[in-house]
Model the fold of this input.
Amino acid sequence: MKKAVLFFGLFAMLAIQANAQKKGNYRSSSNGVGNYNTALGIRLNPWVVGFTVKHFIQGPHAIEGLVTTNTNHKTNVTFTGLYEYNWNIGVPELNMYAGGGAHVGFYDRRDYDWDRYTSKGKGTYVSPGLDGIIGIEYTFKNIPLNLSADLKPYVQFVGPTNYLGEEIGGISARYTFK
Done:
């Protein structure tokens, strides 16, 4: 799973860099949100670490992709896709956002389902689910940096738990592309 996370992160970085070089800045400051088209970085909380990429598709509408792993259970990985609506809250560099999406997680049975691990042995289960997100972000004017903090509640459809509390929120630091 570590290789999959690393591969996805490198692929996303290369794809975004290529996309940023061929496109002009189609976003105008008149829409009142942010001053970047795409941002790539890391997402953290005390239990989860991963990659994040956010791209504005038109005006205040953005999509965000997350690839995260648990710091204690490094064989587990979650892929998340989100739609986010952004709005300015007074200061030109400060925005709030809210939206939702879906995820799919790959979890080691030993880490999250001890009863099945003891009865059936090693194994991995796949757990899809739905996510919500609400947060705030600040984009610096003079340096290509975006900082955000959010809450991301979710529900899973299969697996031993329908909710993993350690993935509910996080902070992100992203490099911005104009």
